[in-house]
Amino acid sequence: MVCLSQRSQAKFRMILAILILIAVELVHPTVSCKNETCSQLLRHSLRLTRLMSKRTTELLETYKTSQDFADLICDMQMDNVPVSTVSGQTISQRILSVYTHLKEFLPHMKTVMEQQKDLNPPTNPVAEGLNRMITHVRHIAVRVNCILEILQPNIPIPEPAESPTGIPHAQNIFQQKAYGCIVLTRLQELLSQAVQEQKSLKKGKMCRKSTKNGS
Amino acid sequence: MGSSHHLLVFLMFLHYAVGFTYNCVKILPDSSSSIVVEVGKNFTATCHLLEGCAYTSDDIEWRLGNLSIAKQSYHRINETAVSVTINISSDMSDWLKCTAPKESLSYKPRSIYGIFLRAGYPPLKPKNLSCIAVQEDKDISPNLSCSWDPGSRNPLIDTTYTVYANVPGTVLTHKADCKQHLARFCVVNLETFPIHMVLKVWVEVKNALGSERSELQSDSTYFVKPNPPLNVQVLTEDKFPTSLMVTWKHPIDRTILKLSYAIRYRKVTSNVWIEVPESFTRGYIESFRLQSLEPYTQYVVQMRCIGESNSSYWSNWSPSVTERTTEAKPASAPDLWRIIQPTSNSRNVTLIWKAPVKANGKIQFYNLSINQNNEKFESHNIADNLSQMYSMELPAGKMASIEITANNSAGDSPKATLSIPRSDKELPGVKDMSWSVRDEKLQVKWTAVLPLPHPLKLSEYLLEWVKIPQSVHQKELPAGWQRVPKNVTVTTLNADLEKFKRYNISVYPIYKYQSGHVWHFQPGRPVTRPAYVQQGPPKEGPTVTVTKSKKNSAELTWEEIPLDSQQGFIIHYTIFYAIGNTKQWKSDMVGPNVHSYVLTDLASETDYVVYVMASTEAGSVKGTDCTFKTMKYGDGEVEVIVVVVCLSFLFLTVFIIMICLRKREVIKKLLWPQVPDPSDSSIAHWSPDFPIKADLPKEDVSVVEVDVFDGKSLCEEDKGVLPLKKDKYLSEEHSSGIGGSSCMSSPRHSVSDSDEGDSGQTTSSTVQYSTVLGSGYKGQTPSHQPPAFARSESTQPLLDCEEHPDHLNESQSRSSYFRRGRELEPGVLAPECDGGSLTFCPVQEEEPSPVAEEPPASALCYMPQKSGYRPQ
């Protein structure tokens, strides 16, 4: 090491800087979360979650209207669709549960969107709504991730892989429609719970505490 | 085999690219395309001689384009390499060539190699990057429109602009390539707008000389431009004439963007907006009450919105909504004025008024109350839709006090009062007044009035303007007026006075005095001046007429141009005149009040053309041409000529008469030749049978001559003896002149008696002057022979006695003249006429031979023979 020439040292520093930059780029949430204060983050997250909850409700109505479905079908059991129940004892656990569920829902939403595109013309409002919804759910996940960073800065956040849905491709049309409705219904329930959890956070003076902690 | 083939192709391409065929030399750095070099920097290239090349470094020459590079820029590295350093300028995009000269007498071609240099600048950092995503329906558009300032420097080389957008925390980055040269605007599609997320946008500019980047990162609402508030309405409220309620709807759901609002309003008549403080509308509200407005006034209201805490762009202003506040009582009095026109015994007063400045509503009617000599005279409610004037007669010896109020649906206005004094009680006016034009407005200046004794106080001044001639429109007020404070002596008329129209500008001092608890306002005497806000040349010139044309002068008159056509103050008239078509104009200038002029020094009996040109300070206009001709003779010349001619004629006449009188004997002889005296006839001596008889007539004739003729002519004698008959005789002489002058008439002419003065009678009474011949001579004629008349050749005129026998008694003397003749034939005529017969005697034609004739036996004489005969 001592024998390294000055030119070699310069090259090393450059490579190190590039590596650090790559590492930073790879860990996006960590970087993005620092652009906002805690209260801003929580406020925006809550608003976005509330907006998406509302939009999902509207989309579900649109879906039911377009598919001529009864509520009963949308509430039936389907094992491969993620549950909407937020679990956990602490607020952090519940927020983590929200985060995990949101990530789990994304592949299902994509599947439903693809099925809707196949079932209906491209101008299908459900497919368009789902496309936007997927983006927004991702954004909620980013926000929730940031909240988790604030809530438990020392605990790494497990990233659930966007694995396949496990839903067999050989679904008939009715099954596809029922599947889509179930996914949207459960997503709507999840987002409602997410709103509640975030409201709890807001009431729980999360940001004041974190500010005091010097975060 | 394949690789060598590719290499060959590559070399051929390289060869083709540089465009030269022989590679004895080579330049480093080298490139198959152009080499981009930065303007202002030094660029160094080295020319190498390849192995086996017969040249040395001394043979190398550098050229840029077709120009040789100075040797001072060369640097000899070794025997086979020479470098050159050049400073790049912006116009140096050209070939840099290294050449070695062709050897003499060699078959080898010249060695040359070149590289293409392209000069340029590195990109500038874009400035002022901003991005906007507008509201689309109920959502935000995913199209993010970004703009920036690329700078003014042209990079000269290909430069690309790319916009990137990314939500931090996500892996997806959206980009848009901007195709335009020196792009300053680009739209990047985000697919879904990242609501409530942080958005990072940057623009990257790149070219061969480097890259630059500008970045923008903020909450996504920062990029949002919402729509203006929806359904903005403005509502009036009864009993609140000073407020308006504004309501609206949120243009976007608060879960997407929570908005705050801004409201601005203005009067319809104003361009100045008043903005409601943002603190009043900060909340997430949907209504607001505008207060402290003016009653019955139209307001225009607009709204816009922005993300709360100014977190987004402002929306555009909403469309204007106009509403009028409700009515309130008029807050000011009407503006009352009067116009007084004196008549023979009275005054015609026209009251005129303007609506209150603060009418606060639609005026329904005016209540006009008139007192004369402090007693109520009349009161009227005059509807507003009628003309705002009222005329009345006011005797000169009476004063009047007028009060007026305006009424709208909310109530009455304060009272306006005006006093009109008796004619002989007018208060003093301002001393002096003048006007000028400033910025196309009339500025009036006057001298302040002196203070008046108590209780009169100067209240204000009033400026009145009246268009001359007055308009015929009944609805239009006959005058305009404007009030100014009492301490002002210069003001500009706030009136849209018409150009080229005359106005009478008057300044009135308005005095006030208190009577009881009421203030009375009374105008003083006005000072009036005519004025124009802008003068122009007259519309038409004066029409000139020639009233008197003389030998060397002509009097011209022209009418004054109508006021409407004058368009300014006439400063002078110019009279132009010229002879016929010579166009050698002469001119005379006269004052504006002169409307007639005498042209002098004109040529006599000559055609002249004349016209009059009227001039204002803005220009002149000529009138119509008038042609006239001067007279041949001057004044009195004709009269002199006539008088001279008449006098000359008179003198000539008198002269002739004098000559006639003087030479009357000669004339007489010429006209009436001497009748041969029978007494001197040789016949008397010739006849031996009648010696005694021959003597008798002679003796008798001599007696007659003594008594009657006395050696004078008949005419002369008549004049002397019968002066009363003078005229008659003269008349006879003149009348004989009809057939020939009494003195000069031809003997053959018949003679008429002109006593009657009737030519008809004259003709009818014309009697042939005949001689009565007997058949014998001196009694020798046998008595049985009939009498005969023979026409006489004598020119002797008939005498009165011939035609008027009744006059014979009165003129015996005249008869005696003829008696002598008859007595020459006493034997023939006397016996018959002595019978006392006065009957007409027919006359027989004269026989050719008097000797052969025999006197008539009983010839009747047509002349009385009562007297004049003497006994024989």
Automatic annotation (TrEMBL), chain A:
Gene Ontology terms, MF aspect: ciliary neurotrophic factor receptor binding; growth factor activity
Name listed for the protein in its UniProt record: Ciliary neurotrophic factor
The keyword Lipid metabolism is assigned to this record: no
Function: CNTF is a survival factor for various neuronal cell types. Seems to prevent the degeneration of motor axons after axotomy.
Cellular compartments per GO CC: cytoplasm
GO biological process: cell differentiation; ciliary neurotrophic factor-mediated signaling pathway; negative regulation of neuron apoptotic process; nervous system development
UniProt-listed Pfam families: CNTF (PF01110)
Keyword vocabulary terms for this entry: Cytoplasm, Developmental protein, Differentiation, Growth factor, Neurogenesis, Signal
Regions annotated as coiled coil: none
TM ranges: none
NADP is among the record's keywords: no
Organism: Cyprinus carpio
Recorded family membership: Belongs to the CNTF family.
Compartments in which it is found: Cytoplasm
Secretion signal, residue range per the UniProt entry: 1-29
InterPro entries named among the record's database cross-references: 4_helix_cytokine-like_core, Ciliary_neurotrophic_fac_CNTF
TrEMBL record, chain B:
Superkingdom to which the source organism belongs: Eukaryota
Biased composition (Low complexity): 759-772, 849-859
CDD domains, per database record: FN3 (cd00063)
Domain Fibronectin type-III: 228-328, 333-426, 538-633
SMART domains membership: FN3
Organism expressing this protein natively: Cyprinus carpio (Common carp)
Transmembrane segments: 640-661
UniProt-annotated location(s): Membrane
Main localization of the protein described in the UniProt heading: membrane
Residues annotated as signal peptide: 1-19
Keyword Aminoacyl-tRNA synthetase assigned: no
Annotated region (Disordered), positions in chain: 732-872
Gene Ontology terms: cellular component: plasma membrane
Keyword terms, alphabetized: Glycoprotein, Immunoglobulin domain, Membrane, Receptor, Repeat, Signal, Transmembrane, Transmembrane helix
The protein, known as: Interleukin 6 signal transducer
Membrane topology (UniProt): Single-pass type I membrane protein
InterPro entries found in the cross-reference section: FN3_dom, FN3_sf, Ig-like_dom_sf, Ig-like_fold, IgC2-like_lig-bd, Type1_Cytokine_Rcpt_Type2
The keyword Thylakoid appears for this protein: no
